[in-house]
Amino acid sequence: MRKFALLAALALFACAQTACARDYVAVYEAELDTVNYLKSNKTETMQLGYNTCDGLVEFDRFGLTMPSLATDWKVSDDGLTITLHVRKGVKWYTCEGKEYAEVTAHDFEAGAKWVLIKKNASVVANTIYNNIAGAKDYYQGKTADWGTVGIKALDDWTIQYTFAKRLPYALKMLSFPAFYPASQKFIDECGEDFGTSNDTMLYCGAYILTEFEPEYQRVLTANEHYWNRDAISIEHMIYKYSKEASANGPELFLRGEVMDLNLPGTIMDEWMKDPEKKKLMRPTNLTNMTYFMAFNFEPLYGEEYAPKDWIEAVNNLNFRKSLFHGFDRVAALLAMAPYDYQRRLTGTLTRRNLVQVKGVDYVEMGGLSEYTHGESFDPKKALEYKAKAMEELKGKVTFPIKVVMPYNTGNVDIVNRSQVVEQQMEKLLGADYIDIILVPYPASGYNKATRTSGKFAFTQLGWGPDFVDPLSALDPVMESALSPKWSRLNLARDMRLPEGGTKFDAMAEAAAAEVNDLKKRYEMFAQAEKYLLDNAYVVPFYLSGGGFKASYLHPFYGFTSQMGINSLRKLKAAKLLDKPMNMEEYEAAEKQYLKELEEARKNAKYE
Fold it and tell me: Which of the listed ranges 13-22, 99-108, 442-451 does the model predict with the highest average pLDDT?
């Protein structure tokens, strides 16, 4: 019955070339962990937040800063304080579209306060407490006096932020959902249910989450009373659930039932060789996220997988290096991106084009160019390190080492790629050395079941920076609120310092303290990242996005994050096409976009 209802509902919205062409329809295969953008850093939840709530500043299609719920602002001479005037007349609405209250400066204070209450378990809290004066002591319970935190509503229409130190990206950081507003009155009314469903959230953005039925559908409807209504070109965004979306998506697109589809690698040959289907294809923009293979230094899986042996092995540098150089990134990526794998490979954790100084990109600094232009896969080195590791681990572990590698069963490409990795690495390094054990998990709740729960030894993790600085790009590998839910890298024995903390964190914190000389700051961060790679703590893999898609969405329209088109998270100001853009049209559109970007940067009003 549910399957029939899904197909029937999709058919109702199959209107890409009909009268309701201002609606956008897509399918998804993994359900949201939460709709509360003050709580989660998961891409899908943050994307929901960007579309349903506004921050103080935002970014246009070129990634250039522009006012949003702040009309103007002033930065103090010492760079520590930003005072912003809040736009008047913006209202909160319920999921039914009923006006609830006016958005004021007090709501920005209330939102930050909710994030900084530790029991609310917001995973984005570190973005505030690591940067705002007094916020860490409040978060850690060292003080209950909110007046000591550098976030204050000076009156109904003025909000002031005082930072713990001068930050070159402070204003842009305020666009991040952790700094979004929330109504204290509404929070109090909802209690512990706040943010658990669409009717326990309020909306002041371009869209309202009018329907939210987990593992069925969610519908975002244009906010008729939005302060910038003219920027909305799509009236409804309709997301339909299918646990086999990646497998069924191509057929749904060809039937006109969805309007946007990332094409799985398994069908690329078929579509490339079919002249009619090829006309529907275009490249997908690369995004801001980098994927890497991570070692888990605190495995929390069952004894049947010999976690003690893994702990001993992963703390051996030569063992890590054998896997670092034994992982064939190209073979793995070919399984999912056979036609554009070279475009997506990355040798560093931080992607190219995040920051530059006088035309020199960050990935060329601090010795990182060795990895930017080199290839980590080296069979000869892998076997040399294997021999050293086996000698050093003799009598301490039982070989082969069980390498638990979970995978997402909802993504066809990942299923295929996991099998390729298992076969490739076991063949190269030998069954006498490692036994890669593939463990399947469903798409919904995958990260919570594997990454957050620590039930992996070696797996793919992904991360995209929240603001334009290497500090944010390196967040998940630092000893922070994120670390316990990621690779537990801070527990690596050879990284720990006698006085506490880790060598990497010490290097990164020293870099973060340099706020005046950007070139020196980036050089220091690059040296810290090179330390991670030199010691094989992680294995950089590929950039998110890329590949090919069939879509009625114009790839170079829509508001972005500060990362520009690499992070197209808003469909505000997006543009729907009459027909899918093809390869040649994409190339021409990209050239035009880059030309317009150059001109827009010259005329930018704000930094």
Answer: 99-108
List helix spans (H) across 158-267.
170-173, 184-190, 245-254
Alpha-helical regions (H) of 430-515: 446-447, 470-473, 503-513
Nearest to 526, CA basis, from 374, 347, 376, 323: 347
Domain locations in the chain?
A: 25-222, 290-542
186 close to 23: Cβ distance less than 8 angstroms = no
Q: Quote the CA–CA distance of 484 and 465 in Å, as a whole number.
A: 18
Q: What is the mean pLDDT of residues 22-44?
A: 89
How many Cβ atoms sit within 10 Å of the Cβ of residue 553? 21
Statement: residue 567 has pLDDT above 90: no
Position of tokens 């990795």? 421
Q: What is the mean pLDDT of the chain?
A: 91
Model confidence pLDDT, tens digit, residues 77-87: 999 999 999 99
Backbone φ and ψ of 123, nearest 5°: -85, 0
Distance CA 333, CA 335 (A): 5
How many helices, marked H, and strands, marked E, lie in the chain?
A: 22, 22
Let me know: does 369 contact 278? Beta carbons within 8 Å: no
pLDDT for 475 equals: 85
Nearest residue to 491 via CA among 476, 506, 481, 501: 501
> Which superfamily is assigned to 290-542 in CATH?
Dipeptide-binding Protein; Domain 3 (3.10.105.10)
Question: Which amino acid belongs to residue 232?
Answer: I
Backbone angles phi, psi at 502, to 5 degrees: -125, 155
Q: What would the pLDDT profile of 458-507 be if each residue is shown by its tens digit?
A: 999 998 887 889 998 998 888 865 666 777 899 999 999 999 899 999 99
| Helix orientation angle between 245-254 and 412-429, rounded to the nearest 10 degrees | 140
pLDDT at 398 over 90: yes
* Amino acid letter, residue 389: A
pLDDT interval class at 6 (50, 70, 90): very low
First CA to last CA across the chain, in angstroms? 54
Query: Could you give the 3-state DSSP secondary structure of residue 402?
Result: strand
Q: How does DSSP assign 83-127, residue by residue?
A: EEEEPTT-EEE-TT--EEEE--HHHHHHHHHHHH-GGG--TTHHH
pLDDT computed for residue 607 by the predictor:
66
**C-alpha of 41 from chain center:** 7
In CATH, the number for domain 25-222 is 3.90.76.10
